[in-house]
C-alpha cells in the first residue's frame, strides 16, 4: 500500500499531496508539434512549437523530462514577488494570501524537474524556504493559543502542508471541547 | 454576512457551466479526499465509479489500439500516464473504503443507514469478513471463556451496550471548505452555553470543525473535506 497514509490520522502523505498538486495548471512552451491529447482528466493541446500551452503540472514535468518543453514558472515564483510575500509574512501574525494552496509542492516539483527554467533559482528557493519557515512557525504559535472552550477554528490561507501540521497536532490531542471562532478569528 | 438566508439554491449560469466542465476525475478526486478525511464511511458513489470505470476501459482500449498501430510513442506514454493516475485515484478511493469497512464492520452492519452506504461488492466483503472474524474469535478464544463472556459484541452479558464494537470517532476534527455561504450550522458539541449559537461559513475559507457538527452538510455535498 505504497503512498497510502494512515487513515487514523486523516493525513495525506507527502506523496499524495504531490499527486494532488500535480493537477495544478501551468504554462509551458513546447518545442514539438503534437496534436491534442484527449485524456480522461481533460483535453490538452494541441502543441505548437513556441506557442504557450496550458497543461497540468504532471504533464509539464513529463514533457520537460523528455526535453520537449520549457516550463514557465508561475508568477508568484519570482524574486520580486516572493520578497514582498516574505516581508508581509514577517510583519504580521496573519497568513498572507498571496501564495497558492500547494505552493510548497509546486515549487518543489519545479525545482526538481525544471530548475533551469526558473530565473534566479537559488534566490527563489531560499526565499520559499524562508517563507515556509515563517509560516510554519506562525501555525505552531497559533496552535498554542487553543484552549478547551473553542468551537471551530477559521483559518485563512493555510497551505496544504501546513494543514497537515495542524491536523496531526489536533488529532493527537483529545478534544472534548472545541475551539471558539472568536478566539482565533484571523 | 448580514443575510442569514441560504442564497443560491438555484445554480447560476456560471455554476452551471462549472458543473458541466467538471470532469468525472475531478469529482472522483473530491470523493476520494472526503472519504479519506471523514472518520466514518461515506455513501458509495455508484454512478460516479461506474462512469469512471467505463472511461478507464475505453481509454485502455484506445491505448492498446494505439500501441499496436504504431502511434507516436511520446503521446502514447502520456496517455498511459493519464490512465495510471486515474487508476491510482480509483484504487485509492476503494482501498480507503475497504480499510474503514475492515475496521468498523460490526458497527456498520448494525445500522441500516451505514450498511446501505456500501456497494454490493463491499457488502459481500463485509459479510464474509464478519463471519470469518466471528468464527475465528469464537473458535480461538470465546468458546473457552465462561458462558457470560462469549459474545463478540459485548464484554459480558451485563453490558448494556455493544461495548466491544469499534466505532469511528465522530467528534474528531476535520478540515473543510464550503462551496457557498452557509449559515445556521448547529454545533452539536462544545460547552453547553455555546451550543445554541449558530455557526456560519464563508465560501473558500478553511475551517477546522468537529465532524459531527457538519456531518449532514458533508453528506449533502455542500462541504468538501480536505
From TrEMBL, chain A:
<dbReference type="Pfam" id="PF25005">
    <property type="entry name" value="PSF2_N"/>
</dbReference>
<protein>
    <recommendedName>
        <fullName>DNA replication complex GINS protein PSF2</fullName>
    </recommendedName>
</protein>
<dbReference type="GO" id="GO:0000727">
    <property type="term" value="P:double-strand break repair via break-induced replication"/>
</dbReference>
<feature type="domain" description="GINS subunit">
    <location>
        <begin position="76"/>
        <end position="166"/>
    </location>
</feature>
<comment type="similarity">
    <text>Belongs to the GINS2/PSF2 family.</text>
</comment>
<dbReference type="Pfam" id="PF05916">
    <property type="entry name" value="Sld5"/>
</dbReference>
<dbReference type="GO" id="GO:0000811">
    <property type="term" value="C:GINS complex"/>
</dbReference>
<keyword id="KW-0235">DNA replication</keyword>
<dbReference type="InterPro" id="IPR021151">
    <property type="entry name" value="GINS_A"/>
</dbReference>
<feature type="domain" description="DNA replication complex GINS protein PSF2 N-terminal">
    <location>
        <begin position="14"/>
        <end position="72"/>
    </location>
</feature>
<keyword id="KW-0539">Nucleus</keyword>
<dbReference type="InterPro" id="IPR036224">
    <property type="entry name" value="GINS_bundle-like_dom_sf"/>
</dbReference>
<dbReference type="GO" id="GO:0006260">
    <property type="term" value="P:DNA replication"/>
</dbReference>
<comment type="subunit">
    <text>Component of the GINS complex.</text>
</comment>
<dbReference type="InterPro" id="IPR056784">
    <property type="entry name" value="PSF2_N"/>
</dbReference>
<dbReference type="InterPro" id="IPR007257">
    <property type="entry name" value="GINS_Psf2"/>
</dbReference>
From TrEMBL, chain B:
<dbReference type="InterPro" id="IPR036224">
    <property type="entry name" value="GINS_bundle-like_dom_sf"/>
</dbReference>
<keyword id="KW-0539">Nucleus</keyword>
<feature type="domain" description="DNA replication complex GINS protein SLD5 C-terminal">
    <location>
        <begin position="168"/>
        <end position="226"/>
    </location>
</feature>
<dbReference type="InterPro" id="IPR008591">
    <property type="entry name" value="GINS_Sld5"/>
</dbReference>
<protein>
    <recommendedName>
        <fullName>DNA replication complex GINS protein SLD5</fullName>
    </recommendedName>
</protein>
<dbReference type="GO" id="GO:0000727">
    <property type="term" value="P:double-strand break repair via break-induced replication"/>
</dbReference>
<dbReference type="InterPro" id="IPR038749">
    <property type="entry name" value="Sld5_GINS_A"/>
</dbReference>
<dbReference type="InterPro" id="IPR031633">
    <property type="entry name" value="SLD5_C"/>
</dbReference>
<dbReference type="InterPro" id="IPR021151">
    <property type="entry name" value="GINS_A"/>
</dbReference>
<dbReference type="Pfam" id="PF16922">
    <property type="entry name" value="SLD5_C"/>
</dbReference>
<dbReference type="GO" id="GO:0000811">
    <property type="term" value="C:GINS complex"/>
</dbReference>
<comment type="function">
    <text>The GINS complex plays an essential role in the initiation of DNA replication.</text>
</comment>
<feature type="domain" description="GINS subunit">
    <location>
        <begin position="71"/>
        <end position="139"/>
    </location>
</feature>
<dbReference type="GO" id="GO:0006261">
    <property type="term" value="P:DNA-templated DNA replication"/>
</dbReference>
<keyword id="KW-0235">DNA replication</keyword>
<comment type="similarity">
    <text>Belongs to the GINS4/SLD5 family.</text>
</comment>
<dbReference type="Pfam" id="PF05916">
    <property type="entry name" value="Sld5"/>
</dbReference>
